[in-house]
Queue: 2 jobs
Job 1
Amino acid sequence: MSLNEITQQFELNGNKVLKITPYGKGHINDTFVVETGRKRYILQRINTNLFQNPEKLIHNHLLITNYIKKNNPDEKVLTLIPTKDKAYLSKTPLGCFRMFEFVENSTCFDKVTPDLFEKSGEIFGNFTAMLDGFDATKLYDVLPNFHDTELRFQQFEKALNQNLSGRAKECKEEIDFVLKRKKTAPVFMNMLQNGEIPYRVTHNDTKINNLLFDKSGNGGVVIDLDTIMKGAAGFDFGDSIRFGATTAEEDEKDLNKVHFDLNLFKAYTKGYLKNMGSLLTQKEKDTLAFSAILITYECGMRFLTDHLNGDTYFKINHSGHNLERARTQFKLVSDMEKNFGKMQQIVKKESANHTLNAVKF
Ligand code: ADP
Ligand code: GN1
Ligand code: MG
């Protein structure tokens, strides 16, 4: 069976497939662009090691996008293409596939200017705001405890003890970095569990290449909806900062080029609070600066865990790729720790422009 034959399972309205090419820089699924002369589509092989029940992904995707379309008819959403048998998945010997409309006239970035980063903050903030009234219990918890940093720490410790790759001796510095910060790991989950901050519907993977900016400058489409589950606002805010408020890419080898950028932090905070400022509780606002440190620490720890396990989770381009990624994350964590006071001031100042948590009459 070929990829071309797989595309025939989907409702392409007579568009003839001319070319199928690998696409994008996602770390999880295998993504292809399908060209038909008239229209383009995105074909994706779902990573079923991770998502063992892809039907649950489709369920969550349709619920979320239908809810957004119902309440915000002008909003553009990521659209699934049905299969000819009126389902949305094609299960084949080559794997389990789904297809999306290609979001045309859009741009996907791995690095951004302050202006664009402010826009991403607006768009991701708007995304969470649009889901404010959505009943999270309707969603499958597809990857339970996804941002439970303490659990991630335990997975890291297990990887370290097992040392399946035999690499532990080559990354002592990075291992110590993680161990030293063990106490920070449970902070967010504790606050969620004891009700200090509320559960919201969160995207949980808000890096900027999961956002397609409209080329006209008007908004954009949030993609990669697989991890939408209940979580803390800080999970999304923190992950955007982790990926975007930096002078280098996630896998930059030269750490001298990797710096946390306070200006970019400010830009995102400004954009995000434009749409979330009046919805967040004071306590949630108080956690935003810290969330950036925690989620960056967590992500670095996940990369390091995967390196120790022999690269079984994230896609890599070369041996040592996950260690390089871990190092950039830890460099950013160190920078953010030094700038924590300034980050908090920025959140405070930007929050002051927004009404405090909806005073209802
Ligand atoms: P992964 O889960 O592996 O990260 P994504 O769903 O994020 O996969 O897709 C990988 C990349 O493919 C995105 O970063 C984006 O560049 C591109 N992409 C995904 N869906 C679309 C779409 N509907 N239209 C245009 N580009 C897309
Ligand atoms: C993965 O799928 P992608 O590439 O958008 C990962 C995120 C990490 C990110 C690091 C389901 O995101 O959690 O933060 O890599 N997604 C999953 O770049 O694990
Ligand atoms: Mg992605």
Job 2
Amino acid sequence: MRLILLGPPGAGKGTQAQRLVDKHGILQLSTGDMLRAAVAAGTPVGQRAKAIMDRGDLVPDDVMIEIIAERIDRPDTAKGFILDGFPRTVDQAVALDRLLDERGLSLDRIIEIVVDHTILSDRILGRAKETGGSRADDTEATVSKRLAVYREQTAPVADYYRSRGALKQVDGMGSVAEVAARIDENLRAGTDA
Ligand code: ADP
């Protein structure tokens, strides 16, 4: 199974992806996690990405597309994967289509977790407090920038898939378990659910 989870920062993509990993044994490919690992390891990509991430901007498309292409080509993706945090621009979505085409692969589902944007900033900052603020980009200024970047550059990705009839929306308001149940229901239903 190959899935994309879309949704703004704080929508719960990471949490839901992790649950799907546990349930279906497929891989979670989180570009945010990959970038944070690259920053921690001090690789050339990490060195380049750090300042961009700290201010809440997007890492350039060509860098991200290369990271994803390389990742998808590793053998551990054979059973499938959940993309979490990619594609984040329409150009990334177009590149992903081409990349999958070239490999004879397709996507089973593109699920958008829909939430009320007014709660996001509080959710992210609240989570940062709980976890001791382990993410450098969970400050008030950066969070508001990340949300603005989402509206401007990532919301059109949902439109891109919607216009191709490929998007499923799931209500992301409610508990983790409630949202999980909605995602499961969506996955069980046929492609035209
Ligand atoms: P969020 O909680 O904001 O969804 P992520 O962990 O997905 O955070 O990403 C953190 C940061 O990593 C983003 O703000 C951005 O700078 C960078 N990043 C992650 N994925 C991408 C991507 N696909 N394209 C460009 N930048 C990305």
